[in-house]
Amino acid sequence: MEYQLMVEIVEKYGLPGLAIVSFINNAIPGLPPFYLTVISAYAAVSENSHWLATALYAGLGAGIGKVALFAASLYAFSRTGRGRRVKQYSAKLMESRRAKVSLAIAIFFIALLPIPDDIIYIPLAATFYNLLYFSIAVVTGKLVLVTLFYGVGRASKGLISAVLDYLLPEAPTAGYPLGAVLALVAVSLGFSLAIAAVVLAIDWTSVYTAYINQGSRAAVKSFFKEMARVASNTKTAVRDAVRTGRSLISKA
Fold first, then answer.
1. How far is it, in rounded angstroms, from Cα 16 to Cα 100?
2. Nearest of 27, 15, 23 to residue 57 by alpha carbon
3. Which range, of 43-47, 50-54, 79-83, 120-124, averages the lowest pLDDT?
4. What is the pLDDT of residues 51-87, one digit of tens each?
5. Which keywords belong to this entry (predicted)?
């Protein structure tokens, strides 16, 4: 689905169009998550939009799209002889509720990554993971992801306008469609990389070990401890980078 077509659907149908775009973009394997940029653009240009309504329409559309893809993959694998043998084996591995919940937590955080996550979900379907647990985890993750990108669009609205006014002072007052899209893509990409960096920096082994040994409460504490560690390391890295930059400037 082309980006321009997505924009036209949203312009014509509003929030239902946003849900359709999110569903299609997530149901077709291999597509980059263009719908996130559309959500940011919608948040930036729509004066009457509300974060909760946008999150519900786009988040549910995206989540249901992934569920549809996962269910189709489950069905396809179940039709093969090898798939049926794998199903018998994986059923033993996934007997415990703890194993199902642990994997659901991982799926939730994968759904938070603004990447083509089909490369993970389709192989996961080959293990015949529980559809209900998958659905809850992926829909919840997409709801949070969409809310974050809606916030990016709202927060960057003034910044984008200021940058465009500076770069194109003589442009018509009607707006700068191409420039706005490029600016939103840049902001969304930067935000995507930031989310990915945080998720990848967390020591998930520690969180999982705490969950297995001590339960959900200990896992939550371990998660926030990891978040604090990542924040501290990021603060130190930024401070060192600023010092290095100042040192280079003073020597120049």
1. 33
2. 15
3. 79-83
4. 888 889 999 999 999 999 999 988 887 777 665 665 6
5. Membrane, Transmembrane, Transmembrane helix
Query: Which of 130, 129, 155, 147 lies closest to 60 in space, CA to CA?
Result: 147
- Pick the last residue of a domain from 182, 199, 216: 199
- Distance, CA of 79 to CA of 63 (rounded, Å): 25
Encoded tokens for 107? 């799926």
Which of 201, 223, 202 minimizes the C-alpha distance to 214? Answer: 223
Per the CB < 8 A criterion, the answer to whether 40 and 60 are in contact is: no
Count the domains in the chain: 2
Other C-beta atoms closer than 10 Å to the C-beta of 155 total 14
Same-domain pairing of 112 and 12: yes
**Contact between 192 and 114 (Cβ < 8 Å):** yes
227 and 239 co-located in one domain: yes
